[in-house]
Sequence to fold (767 residues):
Amino acid sequence: MFTSHAQRTPATAGASRATGAARTDGAPGTGGPPAPAPPATRPAWERLKRRLTPYGFLSPTGVLLAILMLTPIVMVIWYSLLDGVITTRNSAFVGFANYTEVLTDPVFWTAARNTLVFTTVSVVAHFAIGLGFAMLLNTPLLSHRVKAFFRVIYVLPWLFTVAIIAVLWRLLLNPNGVVNYLLGTVGLTDGQTEWLANPSTALAAVTFINVWAGYPFFMISLLAGLQGIPRDLYEAARVDGATPFQQFRNVTVPQLRPIIISMALLDFIWTTQQFALIWMTTGGGPINATEMLSTFTYKLAFSRYEFSVASASAVVVLLASMVLAFFYVRHQKARD
Amino acid sequence: MSNGARMRYLGGTAVVGAAALLLTACGSGGGDAAEGGSSGGDVTIEFAQWWEPELPDGAFRELMDQFESENPGITVELLSGPYASTKEQVLAGAAAGTMSDVVGLDGAWVNDFAKQGSIADLSALMSEDGFDDSQLVSQVQVDGSTYMIPVVNFVYPMFSNDDLLSQAGVDTPPSTRSEFADAAEAVTALGDNTYGWVLPLSLEAPNGVQNDVMSWVWASGGSMLEDGQPALTDNPDVESGIQFVADLWDAGVVAPGSFTMKEQDKVEEFTNGRVGMMIDSLAHVTTIQESNPDLSFSISAIPAEDGYTGERGIPYASWGIGVAENSEHKAEAMKLVEFLMSEETNAELSSIANAFPGNTESVPDFVEDNELFATAFEIYQDGYPANEFTGLPVAEELMRQLGEQLQKTLNGDQSVDDALTAAQKSWESEF
Fold:
């Protein structure tokens, strides 16, 4: 899956093969007799064809991206510059007025702060738990059967859809739910905590649910990375007298670094967009305790029907995501 | 074929595929709702609603078949989906000009769709047809014109858990606020995780503000509006209603988890015998009886302020109907509306939906053979249907805004007055 050496997508691989060493066998392209072409133009035409071939391969994806991604994005950016789109027949161009409205709304900044806390804690916890479990599943101290069993157990949260996760945890964290019963039984709480309905615990509760739901992605990727680290590196470290901790710090972490950085950036981008989980557990409440940029935007669009302002908010989120995406792409390029 | 040539050949094939994709995308422009229209005088009308899935299998289609046999040349195509997605479909359809000819509506959406110009003025269509609107129980209007007709209504009375109340020494369901508060305290005092009342205040689905909070105001003849404008402040009726809810909260008689609780959670709490009383839709009677056949419960009117003797407003939710402004078959669409509102059809639909008819003359079957519904029908006829959120702009958002302020109050961050002042301010900006 992920290894620490450079990867190439099939498209670029194909492209580099197709544009690689030029073959001059002059075989006709169609198996039939070669088409009579003016000798002067033929090499130029062949060269052009060779240059265009990779783009030919890319074209279906390009068209799909243009239809399914680029068009909606351009439409939303355009909507954000108009007034009252969708709900009025004739929208007027208002420039950046919608952006001013979004950026001066205190709830937007509450949502931004919550999103930052939720995302940062989620990514750090995903990494820590994912790495911990990956190392447990990679240990030579346990038999393959035991590790296979735990691999299934640990990966389970990843198999549930967001809707199921939300319903499941709403039930578990219900004031009359299992979590309160267990904590009450062992005497840690009074057994009546309103985890999701209390403004002071709601953000922590949804973050916890998101951590639970997302760590297997890190775990599986890091496990693949761990299994790809050559054994002789550890042997060399042991010969040098390295302790297990020193081996971890000087062999494991540097070998995993490219994966860790990629995963962390991707996870950061994805978690900032998390909507369904928040919406289905707290709806952004209680009060504004779990309002995220995603729920804030959704409410603008589908509750207040202010599609222009919602578009502006969505574009702000897009720009923030693009900054992260820029670092991700730069990191990938550096690896290549 | 050499490798390079094969590559170029495949690349060319890919381009052809991409061109086909592009043409397909360009060629799949949304068909008009009125397609399938006028070949040989036959007309197909689309009817988008969430009712069919909520009715017994095939029951709604049967009604449509009956309509088709009575109106040769008109075919009805049902587009059915869940409630929430119907709203978004109608909204998107209105924007794209592809809205179905006839649409199921909720009163909370009407103002927005009417302002958007996506639903037709039914007053004009009814007068064109010579339809007698005096037989309609109610009509939802915007600026004096009707845009939605409630086909059937689901009322929201008070449900009482008879066993819990009798254990707490309460013999009859409370009919005044002070009786209610006493009963709620007595049930909560039973301990063992039982509470007197349940209040869903989720901000995701904020209709608890309408059904469980404002209902106290309407039950005592109060109103949250004045001349169609928000009147949350300087309004003793609203203030005392909200204060009553806050007092119940402070007394600790409300089941925990309110701030993220939705309607279905509320029903679950009641069904599991953990709360003494709740305000809920009659539509849930069957669900409660099926989930917990041993639960003995009764329904009664929502308690009013002590000493209040006037008519009690009873909250309701409707299956409303409207016609798309962009429909090319408004006359045929109107025929379907009139068919559903006719005395006989309306009684039949009410019976299968366990709802109250939108036609004043219709009497549903269940009233005769089900004591609970008979009681509810009495409550319905004694009072008046009250739901002031119906027809307001961004009604759901108004509920959310008041809900958020109420949460702050119940959380101890502000007073009831502060909550109403803040909600009034945000409501005014939406009007």
